[in-house]
Amino acid sequence: xxxxxxxxxAFVFLACAAVLALNPVPFVSPVPAxxxxxxxxxxxxxxxxxxxxxxxxxxxxxxxxxDCHRIIPSPSETLRKLTQHTEIQLNHGINxxxxxxxxxxxxxxxxxxxxxxxxxNQPQLLCAKCHGPVYRDWQAGSHGxxxxxxxxxxxxxTKRRCIECHDPHHPPFAAMKPAPGPNTLRMxxxxxxxxxxxxxxxxxxxxxxxxxxxx
Amino acid sequence: MPDTESNPSGNAMSRRDFLANGAAxxxxxxxxxxxxxxxxxxxxxxxxxxxxxxQKHYKEMTPEEKAAAxxxxxxxxxKRYGVDAKVADPPPLDGVEFVYGLNISRCIGCxxxxxxxxxxxxxxxxxxxxxxxxxxxEKGSIDVESANHHYDAEKVPRPDKWYMPVQCHQCANPPCVxxxxxxxxxxxPDGITVIDYDWCIGCRYCEAACPYxxxxxxxxxxxxxxxxxxxxxxxxxxxxxxxxxxxxxTFCLHRARAGRLxxxxxxxxxxxxxxxxxxxxxxxxxxxxxNKRVFILKADVxxxxxxxxxFDERGSRYHEPITPDSKGKELKEGA
Lengths: 215, 335
Prior knowledge:
The complex is a heterodimer.
Chain A: H1 2-22, E1 55-58, E2 61-64, H2 65-69, E3 109-111, E4 117-119, H3 123-127, H4 132-140, E5 146-148, E6 157-159, H5 201-206, H6 208-211
Antiparallel strand pairs in A: 1-2, 3-4, 5-6
Chain B: H1 15-36, H2 50-54, H3 63-81, E1 86-88, E2 98-103, H4 112-121, E3 133-138, E4 161-166, H5 175-179, E5 185-187, E6 193-195, H6 205-209, E7 215-217, E8 232-234, E9 246-248, H7 253-256, H8 263-267, E10 273-277, H9 284-291, E11 293-295, E12 307-311, H10 329-332
Parallel strand pairs in B: 1-8, 2-12
Antiparallel strand pairs in B: 2-10, 3-4, 5-6, 7-9, 11-12
């Protein structure tokens, strides 16, 4: 009798060994496949690289501004049709006139409130004419980009200027494509359409109309 | 049942019982071997070396022991990734307290900071570990519970939404430090809360204690391609972690203590991120705290964060394209 019982024990052990060795329910990793991050997502280059030179490029040729403007006068009337610089879409608030910013006689300079020249390489002074609080914040460092070292004693610091982020003819910061969202173990959405999307707490709030079309 | 009944010879065990017991024992050994068989996948790097096992807590190491530990880590990185890394242990700077400012009027939610952080700090790529979470919320609300960090728009910022990146706030009163049962995490004199990855036991109490969900756990062995390893490493920040330990944002301690700005700040296209020494009256963060309108996230939990959100004087209208209709809107509104 005892022997028979022990044989059963042996059989159970063997069955366990077989199950463990054959591994009939293989382990499926919950780790999702890697989402590749595009290289621009980690690139610290500013969104714009202005020339900071009084130059104009058209049809493959680069001109000095004064090459043309020394000879050809620009009429002060601004509601005429442009024949040159037609690619410029001026959408800068109430600034509908070129000479609000560009100097009327010296095209290598901008113009300040008193008709005096602002040098080409100091565009922030031009912006400061209207954008006082932002200029103050930029000077103090709370607006705009700063790259390099926080401790200036240890290394160089690059303070980006207005036009490295803003197009002066269309100043709002351009919308851009976002980098890939989180796909982490806890933050990743592994079964987005489970229960028709109704059990996903993120969906209930943010996309309520889609998740519950009745409401 | 007494053995002697089936055992006329008086032996302690019959032949049949002996064979049955033997078979049971052999099967038991087989089952044990099968159960232990996953151990055969263990490699040498899965087990701690003697030095690693005997290594003391970071704060108790003598300079020589620390140097040996750094050398051991360097060697480990070389063996695991084939990368010749520079493993340093920069000390906190005197008279420096790091503070982070984030301009929520300017953040557009592009998530570049998230990925620059991952590239800088050698986080696991698969499964992903990210220190920064960018929350998207409806304008006019600050309900972080209903915030969405999975937004996937064609273009950001989306109209009627605003974005709030959340990462470790380097609290002055950090709950994560208080709950650690082994003191593997602590606050440094410059305000950065760090982890000794070799001392962490992976209990995840700190993850539960953090009100900002800033701590991450390595559920698996972190996978990082060799060519994406950042060789500029520090003991307390971005040296590769192992399975089963916590990790978190350290304001890029290896950069910050060398005078450099954190990686998330460097990459931000809008300049929303500001970092510096708050004790320096000329620093940007000092100006922000003194002059801008600043708030902290979950002020009511009393953690005293060193991470401040601020905003500009006017409501930011960055998402509104300027059209012929809207030209001069500011003046028409009488602002």
